[in-house]
Amino acid sequence: MHELGITQSVVEAVTCRTGSARVACVRVRVGRLAGVVPDAMRFCFELVTAGTPLEGADLEIEQPDGRGHCRACGAEFPLDDLILLCDCGSADVDVLSGRELAVASVVLSGSAT
Ligand SMILES: [Zn+2]
Prior knowledge:
Blueprint: H1 3-18, E1 23-30, H2 38-49, E2 58-62, E3 66-70, E4 76-79, E5 93-97, E6 101-108
Parallel strand pairs: 1-2
Antiparallel strand pairs: 1-6, 3-4, 3-5
Helix pairs in contact: 1-2
Bound molecules: zinc ion (ZN).
Residues 70, 72-73, 75, 86, 88, 90 line the site of zinc ion.
């Protein structure tokens, strides 16, 4: 389950900036092509944050759709998975988005949002 390592990195990146401040919510952006299962990530988040200032924080996962660009015919189209195949039959497809994995924002406890 590689979500564990990814989630650990996310939690480390957050605590690196927020220190000992209590965190109420972490929003992450995980592209549909990033190969991360959101439910698995939520499960790992609970494990990884136990005993840290992030314990009990909500994890919100945004999943932007993937987009591909065909180098053969120039078409742009949505990508639901990593099968990179254009309708024209070409597999010479660039992934424009959908592989991102980033912390979008962090809400600290007690801050008014
Ligand atoms: Zn094409």
